[in-house]
From TrEMBL:
<dbReference type="InterPro" id="IPR002068">
    <property type="entry name" value="A-crystallin/Hsp20_dom"/>
</dbReference>
<feature type="domain" description="CS">
    <location>
        <begin position="32"/>
        <end position="137"/>
    </location>
</feature>
<dbReference type="Pfam" id="PF00011">
    <property type="entry name" value="HSP20"/>
</dbReference>
<dbReference type="InterPro" id="IPR007052">
    <property type="entry name" value="CS_dom"/>
</dbReference>
<dbReference type="InterPro" id="IPR008978">
    <property type="entry name" value="HSP20-like_chaperone"/>
</dbReference>
<dbReference type="InterPro" id="IPR031107">
    <property type="entry name" value="Small_HSP"/>
</dbReference>
<keyword id="KW-0346">Stress response</keyword>
<feature type="domain" description="SHSP">
    <location>
        <begin position="28"/>
        <end position="142"/>
    </location>
</feature>
<protein>
    <submittedName>
        <fullName>Heat shock protein Hsp20</fullName>
    </submittedName>
</protein>
<comment type="similarity">
    <text>Belongs to the small heat shock protein (HSP20) family.</text>
</comment>
């Protein structure tokens, strides 16, 4: 069993916010917030569901899966051709986004499937045999 880096969720969020701030200061453009993602597992697979509002098509999304993580990257583009100086008020995010999530068990990356519909991305990844094993076994004491 190899060592695995542990990042508390608060530290990961802070790191993502700092990276966005740095990119904004460096490039002068706003970067979209990291997508919100739910990850859950069934007996045989891990399922990740991401909200990607504003992403027009699956061609604007890249998903990579390793045996212990999932990476979601993409870009939200402005739909209307409006000059920056013509905006009176702008809150909608546009630009590139990325998110890397550790997976709770070992999976089979080459068997992952994805579906993108109405701004929702769903990725299903089968578990390996090692990933299906229970994490703990209760021992009866006589």
């Amino acid at each position: 069993m190899g060592l695995r880096r542990w990042d508390p969720p608060e530290l990961t969020t802070l790191r993502e916010q700092m990276n966005r701030l740095w990119d904004t200061l460096r490039t002068g453009t706003r970067e979209a917030a990291a997508p919100r993602v739910d990850v859950h597992q069934t007996e045989n697979e891990v399922v990740a569901v991401a909200e990607l509002p504003g992403v027009p098509s699956k061609d604007d999304i890249e998903v990579q899966v390793t045996k212990d993580s999932i990476s979601i990257r993409g870009e939200i583009k402005r739909v209307h051709d409006v000059r920056e100086e013509d905006f009176i008020h702008s809150e909608r995010f546009y630009g590139s986004f990325s998110r890397i999530l550790p997976l709770p068990v070992e999976v089979k990356p080459n068997e992952a499937t994805g579906r993108f519909e109405n701004g929702i991305l769903e990725i299903r990844i089968p578990k390996t045999e090692a990933g299906r094993r229970p994490k703990a076994h209760r021992v009866d004491i006589n």
